[in-house]
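Review form for a predicted model. The reviewer records the input and the model, then writes brief findings.
Reviewer: anonymous (R2)
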Amino acid sequence: MLLFKRFVPWLTAALIAAGSVAAHAQAAKAPDVLIKEVSSDVLDAVKADKSIKQGDVGKVVALVDAKVMPHVNFQRMTASAVGRYWRQATPEQQKRLQDEFKILLVRTYSGALAQVQDQTVELKPMRAAATDKEVVVRTEIRGRGDPVQLDYRLENTGTEWKVYDINVLGVWLVENYRSSFAQEIGSGGIDGLITKLAERNKAAKS
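Model under review:
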């Protein structure tokens, strides 16, 4: 968890960049090219927006809702984080898990965006065939200090590309949360996890 928390500032730019790929999916461009272009555009936009850099949560929420979440397979992301327990959850529990998980990530983003400074995005060679339905786009965020590994898992739904997982310095977002979620479910059930997420989100808001 310490490694993940240390580099969580890059998750905001990651989700915004990867999620925005779907909006450009109709263009005849490879996923890695789109990631490069959109990532650079987003970083430039964040650097120029003082309110986001100052941690304006309301603006971050609006940004994520409008630009990111419509292009992320958030159900798959949440289901993967919950793991085998997802199938045991009722539809209402699944909805609440998605809602609280989304708030958790958005609240994290508000602090993360404020840390964007002079970073740029560099692509690594992508190993994928034109017919692949799922791809991994590997990048590095370069700026002050050591480069930060940032990888994306994207799926082709048939009409668009959607992100469903992100890797920061070798730590996949979904796998990271799966471990802690499993512990919460093991001790308090699915409702216990929902309660813990809600309490954490409420504390972050206050």
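Findings: The mean pLDDT is 79.
Further findings: The radius of gyration is 17 Å.
Recommendation: see findings above.
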